[in-house]
Amino acid sequence: MSHRLPPRLQPTLGLAGLSLLGALPAAAQTPPAAIPLPEIGIAADAPSTYRRDAQPAPRLPTAIADTPQTINVVPRELIDERAGTTLREALRNVTGISLVGGEGGASGDNLTLRGFSARGDFFIEGLRDSGQYTRDPFYLDSIEVLKGPSSIQFGRGSTGGVINQTLRLPQARNFGELSLQAFSPGGVRATSDVNLHAGNVAVRLNTMAMTQQIAGRDHVENKRYGVAPSITWGLGTNTQLTVHYLHQYEENIPDYGVPWLFGRPAPVNRSNFYGTSGVDHERLTTDVLTARVLHRFSDAITLRNTFRFANYDRDLDATAPRIAGTVTPSTPLSSILVNRQAQFRDATDTSYTNLSEAVLNFRTGILEHSAIIGVELSRDLNRTTRYAATRPSTSLLFPNFYAIENGLRTVSSRIDVTSDSAAVFAVDQIKLGEMFEILVGGRFDHFSTDYRDRLANTRLKGNDNVGSYRAALVFKPFPGVRTYFSTGTSFNPSGEFLTLSATIADLAPERNQSYELGASWEVTGQLELRGALFRLEKENARTTDPATGITSLAGNQRVDGFEVSALGRITRNWNLLAGYTFLDGEIVESNTPAEVGRRIPNTPRHTATVWTTYDLPYDLQLGGGAFYVDSRFSNTANTNRAPGYTRWDAAIAWQPREGAFRGLRLQANALNLTDRRYYDQVTGGQVVPGAGRTFLFTVGARF
């Protein structure tokens, strides 16, 4: 790119010739005529769109590049290149993650991160997003995955890390973008992004509507639409108010996959679906309102307050397939029957959260401080009614989709849960000269849960007070090289997921300790290499004695691992994102002897991802890549194992930079290019096949 210098920096005769004029005799110093000078240009490569180093780290006082923690960012540009239509698809660009299916009637997004469940560790703009729904990235600017315990920032959970979603918010310019996609084997998607700016006010509207059949899966279908308006007052001033609202509705035929058989996914057609017509459905309504006011007193002091109201309604009637009766390896597959286990419930989750923060930048002597101090208050409510229903068994090989449900549906439980949380926290990253930095932080949480089963007339309560900390040392021995060592804690209370049972209600929270040694190297100014060694240990995991049925905190689970990645621009036309993570997850101690020494469920030893694009002449771009997930077990006894797999994707796009078609984008994507059969979501009860070969064709226009 070539940039003309602004007028105040352009050379003039008066500046360039001062010394010469001063050397001439006085009589010769007559006013000179203006002499035209050549334009000075600065040529430089634009930074890679895959890099978001300067972006603020969620709930921390520093930028992502300055944070002593592994943070993977999936930017908007990468999501678009790979035609991502769900958060789950976007997270395929991040290693150390494994997807989990709808165990126990769960819906939406569920995954493990560095070997530990992250079911409750989704956030939007740093505030918890606890609903069970399919997160669509149409309203997102980026997704940040913060790895390692993060309780000093986010409170309960976050054993393996958190997933934060950064919103598309109003900007100080006018623009718009429209996109239309067509899917194979069937489906369409339309999105829009329009921003209008006038004075100190800007508004932005993101919309989405789609319907999609899943390649290789009979009867499975996803439909959803969403709108996400936002407005900012005081844009560009010291006081800003931003209000963002998300409304998303889904109507799906949920996929609970195929049953396990003799420790492996049942050897049936990938398309086999065990639900029933007119019964299986999933209707999800998500409403999230976020309001943030910010006042900048000076460069040293910024105050901000963020309020969140969220409501998630869920109407689920799904079928979980289970092998019926007793079968042996000699039993013919044609003789095996599948029980259709009903996962039937209505649920509403509501949350109120208020976060007040002070961001401080100051000096004490030779020390430079970047600090954040905050207070967080929240209330979460859950109302769930579960139903029981009887459904006819069906053939393992040839399931009957049009079977009629037997008997009546009866209410099995009515659950009301209220949880309250209050926390104070402080984090300070201190710069000691050019080579050293220290991060210290602490947090105190009060978390209480009130659980009522109104049908059984039972009530349970939990009440926890927990402290968390983090400390880190940063050492920068050479320009472009940064190393760090960090340690921290997190906690998992019994009522973490707004549920309690008599066996765990009185137990203290599980405690987790982490250690991480990491480094980054800015190889060329455009390409960065990163690496980290880490250990995560759940020191007092819940474990049940099979003889007595008593649950205690006598367990221990540990994950040792490392990861490496490369991110950025190799040449002017060549972008690269690549990563690899190794996880050695082990159950070290348990009251169940058969679990000791086994691998932690849903923790693949090896995960890898690569995506690369190359800009060709005539405004063409080629892209391609793959991700690999090693085999993983679905249970603590390691009796059910899903095989590993590699999925290949490819893309080609044409986006003219000049001429009559400037702003147009034509793109074609192929997902699972080789039509590989693989198992995407793993649970203890069933395993869900991934989609077959899928083509997406996109027409987009920017203005």
UniProtKB/TrEMBL annotation:
CDD domains documented for this protein: ligand_gated_channel
InterPro entries linked to this entry: Beta-barrel_TonB, Beta-barrel_TonB_sf, Plug_dom, Plug_dom_sf, TonB-dep_rcpt-like, TonB_rcpt_CS, TonB_sidphr_rcpt
Domain TonB-dependent receptor-like beta-barrel: 233-673
Keyword Iron appears in the UniProt entry: yes
Motif (TonB C-terminal box): 686-703
GO biological processes: siderophore transport
UniProt cross-references to PROSITE patterns, sorted A to Z: TONB_DEPENDENT_REC_2 (PS01156), TONB_DEPENDENT_REC_3 (PS52016)
Subcellular location: Cell outer membrane
Membrane topology of this protein: Multi-pass membrane protein
GO molecular function: siderophore uptake transmembrane transporter activity; signaling receptor activity
Keywords annotated in UniProt: Cell outer membrane, Ion transport, Iron, Iron transport, Membrane, Receptor, Signal, TonB box, Transmembrane, Transmembrane beta strand, Transport
Cellular component terms (Gene Ontology): cell outer membrane
Signal peptide: 1-28
Family to which this protein belongs: Belongs to the TonB-dependent receptor family.
Protein name (Swiss-Prot/TrEMBL): TonB-dependent siderophore receptor
Natural source organism: Siccirubricoccus deserti
